[in-house]
Amino acid sequence: MANVDGQWDCVTKTPMGEQKSVFTVVSNGDSFTGSNAGPMGTLDVIDGKVDGDTLSWKMELKVPMAMVMDATATVDGDTLKGEVKLGAFGVAPMSGTRKA
Questions:
Q1: What pTM, to 2 d.p., does this model score?
Q2: Superkingdom of the source (predicted)?
């Protein structure tokens, strides 16, 4: 199993521009908890799952509009790549690097 735990400096390329955040992952077997914190607030990880080096989770956005986002990412060493499904707004690529 990959080492997915840690804090990740991430960028998500949304229709509203690049959104920078710090994604925190704390795994426990095949699940994980954490958060994604950016300038517009912090979103908690909901239903976080770990499958080898792949993470999947949901986040509930309340501002500027209510939306549940589905996300997946793959960890490769100190890099993370994935995508966030933004409801009717499509899919936004997400990438990150592990904080030292």
A1: 0.92
A2: Bacteria
